[in-house]
Records
---
Amino acid sequence: MKVRVTVSLKEGVLDPQGKAIGHALHVLDFPEVREVRVGKVIELDLDEADAARAQERAIEMAKGLLANQVIEDFRTEIVQ
Amino acid sequence: MKVRVTVSLKEGVLDPQGKAIGHALHVLDFPEVREVRVGKVIELDLDEADAARAQERAIEMAKGLLANQVIEDFRTEIVQ
């Protein structure tokens, strides 16, 4: 079972990497860019046939290692 | 219009960050983890009301800056 964990900065947390990308896009002639936020996507291939159980375990992994819940939110979804 | 660009390493490209996370998850007692791949997700807020045009521009941005197409694939999707 594959589970995708998407980790993004919470609203209001400064995102310097996003700001840098936004600036670069303006320079590259994309003036329509208003804001850029950057996150991580972690694809887990788990030896677990049950989708609900796989997602539950992925949430434990996100809380324990993948996301810093002080400044980041995460969501999980089954890929296949 | 918001567009999400997800950038991931092509199949076969070594992912040391994914390997490190996989190892850490094993140590943290998640033995069911078989493989981990890490990618980026870039959320673009564009001053563009037309969804098709926004997605087209996001693809240009991905090709021009956000993804290194030698080693990375990307996909775009409209968020709202």
---
Amino acid sequence: MKGTVPLLFSFLFATVIGLDEKHVIREKANLLAREVDMMVGSDITLTDNEEKANAIVMDMKMKEVDDGFNYPQFFNLSKHFFKYKDDVKESPLFQVIKNMPKGAVLHAHDTGLLSPDYVVNITYSDDLYVCFVDEDISFLFSENEPEQSCETQWLLMRDARYSSGNVEKFDAHLRKHFTVVVDNPSEAYPDVNAVWNKFGNYFVKTSGLFGYKPIWEMYFYDTLKAFREDNIMYIEIRSVLPPLYDLKGNTYDAVQTAKSYKKMLDRFILDYPDFFGARLIYAPIRLVSASTVEEYLETAKRIKAELPDFFAGFDLVGQEDLGVPLKEFIPQLSAGADELDYFFHAGETNWFGTTTDDNLFDAVALGTKRIGHAFALAKHPVLLQEVKRRNIGLEINVISNNVLKLVDDIRNHPLASFLAQGLPVVISSDDPGVWEADPLSHDFYVAFVGVSSRNADLRLLKKLALNSLYYSTAPYKDKMIYEFEKRWSRFIDGLVRRDNEGEL
Amino acid sequence: MKGTVPLLFSFLFATVIGLDEKHVIREKANLLAREVDMMVGSDITLTDNEEKANAIVMDMKMKEVDDGFNYPQFFNLSKHFFKYKDDVKESPLFQVIKNMPKGAVLHAHDTGLLSPDYVVNITYSDDLYVCFVDEDISFLFSENEPEQSCETQWLLMRDARYSSGNVEKFDAHLRKHFTVVVDNPSEAYPDVNAVWNKFGNYFVKTSGLFGYKPIWEMYFYDTLKAFREDNIMYIEIRSVLPPLYDLKGNTYDAVQTAKSYKKMLDRFILDYPDFFGARLIYAPIRLVSASTVEEYLETAKRIKAELPDFFAGFDLVGQEDLGVPLKEFIPQLSAGADELDYFFHAGETNWFGTTTDDNLFDAVALGTKRIGHAFALAKHPVLLQEVKRRNIGLEINVISNNVLKLVDDIRNHPLASFLAQGLPVVISSDDPGVWEADPLSHDFYVAFVGVSSRNADLRLLKKLALNSLYYSTAPYKDKMIYEFEKRWSRFIDGLVRRDNEGEL
């Protein structure tokens, strides 16, 4: 605070010979300082060693930001993710962020998590049949030729592949079904519905593949493995919990699908005891009637009853603009709130003042614990206050919002203002496999280099990782944060040491 | 406010059988109402007739917004301005907005205001010489062949045109120098520097054309005419005040250029006494040294001394990212503040935390009366508070920001959050001629249909028009607002009448 006398003096001065230059400089510094105090990460105090690491990280960050500023024609994060995703791997800062303990992933979906190459590999499994119809494809595991309809003909995948004459070409073509990545995204996806159509089709096309119980279970195990390797210690997975099937003709309902998840989690933790765990958010499709939502909620309660430690809560998924808005389900969701925690998708839209946009109000009124995306929140000043007051975690997925056409230039992503306002932000990755991103590293990198202030430093990175643990539903949060701090110190020590040894 | 008893009751209820549905609905309504109260325009009360007009306007708006929402593949304002600017003319709402009294234009530059067709017409003037060098062009008025250097050869424009063999083709080619509009903007302008280069070149190429005193004066007279026809009653024009010349070899300095403006304004007001006036913001190029800024400020003071009623204040212009930041001129600008009001461009950038971005802090600390663009302001929570507290008008130019590549999809323009937060917003148009927009109607239309909430109505339109008068520097503000109200009533009456008569 300034004293009264110099302030008064500078006012008097100003009326006589203009503004006092020192006063202008002091006032600017004061305004800047107030903003710095407000930013996400401003409450973190760095140790001496962290300060050293910070200098390394900030050298890297400023070089990359300034190169983008000075040479916008080359690599920079203002372009579409597909245009820079491979270049990112050359960035030393990206490598640092890969190695960095990043805490938890709190917003990630079903079978959208692993790369198209992984999915192509799955198609090498025994007993897999495929049905090609023009540009469409479907899969089914079966001991004999499936009885389900196929407009052409079910082929044993192995036969289709090896009779194609060129396995490499066959697989490359197949791979295109498992990714939304294309060379020219603005041409391939001229509008939001076009890209959502391609994105949604991935899940439709692969339903016969992933619905096979052994594959479903393997996929989750391998997801945990991939996330652990990306230095993630815990995840909360959203799933529609599709019915599963096996070769014996058995089918498994949503509760049993949830149990498959739990079984694989237990197995994974036996194999990798340094991984902290996973919990489930049951998140079925939102384009349904109120009575279906009532059934969903009953299913959710059954899962919670059977897997109380594994079940985290409830959500609804699908393209929010084209889905049914939350307000249609208020009676059901109000009643369900006695037993269930909510983690609603809301505000994944650009359409200000529409019913989709209003989902943000309903989600808050329904007591949601976190908000998925919250992209439109920046347009809602009262909700911004409420999010802060109620401490509702915001699950931000920058790359997803870019790929799914909410924002072309991520410097305009509302995350920038959320970070500036010190909102409870968690960085997540949504469906990184479908756009060929790493489980979380690309999203962290893009948020840090592309969206946050040029001046936002290691404190932001640490805070974002800590937030992901803090806003999780894990019952062993303290233990997890304790372990995180240990891993963080090791990461910092390693970074400083490698820098000293000239290895960076 | 809710009573304590029902609130307590609903809390108790919630713990027993979930949330009370009525409580959820009430809470949402409460949150929504608080936001509605905060929006720009919420303080306007509509008369009965205005309510009728509002119903007409909102029918049109919702139809257009919902068509965009439902059929994103067709016309909608999420695309680049060049893609929809001609379609807009088919919109009945655009026609309404054209007819609507829009108040003042407070942010508009020199010779960027009239269409390329108008500029082509100017090239039919006598005594005009042209120098073609590859894709470059320059002009000079002269009685004889100019002595200035030309890498090829000065041609009398008339000779060049009629010896071309195809006047239409010649003019079409010429026209391309006077517009940034192209069929495929993302291809033509891959980055911000590319489009700024084309934009800046327009001013460079036409400097010999507009620097000719009679043309300079005619251009301003015709600007006032075009703006008046677009239902604008007052403008504040920013100008670099270039030296002018005539056929006799005389040159005129910045003060004399300012006097040319004033002379034409006086003539215009004699011809059109219903136009309220214009004032000048001297806004020379920012890519200069501190000593040049000192000279600028001296010039500004001279203009103020000679034209005290016409001179409004001082600013600096040019691509902000590549210009010198305000902080380099703090000593000069602090000292200049004794005599001069500031209207700084600031925050016309996407680069969060850079020196360009910091211009917002310097502008506020220097006591700027308004901020030009303020695009980056949404990332600065403390400055947002200060702008409101100090009542600093924000001159928002949505189409400019789209064309000059700050934002690809205007639904992500920060204006949306400024409107939601009730900030002192003024809609302006920057350089509408260069991108072939109307003086102000396109910007109003895009702000209203493309950026503001689907629910924002006639009160927003009226408030934006009133703001443009309120945040002007006009000394006859009350009289202007009084006259505005009269014109507004006529507009409302006409709209309601035409609707009754089935003319809409």
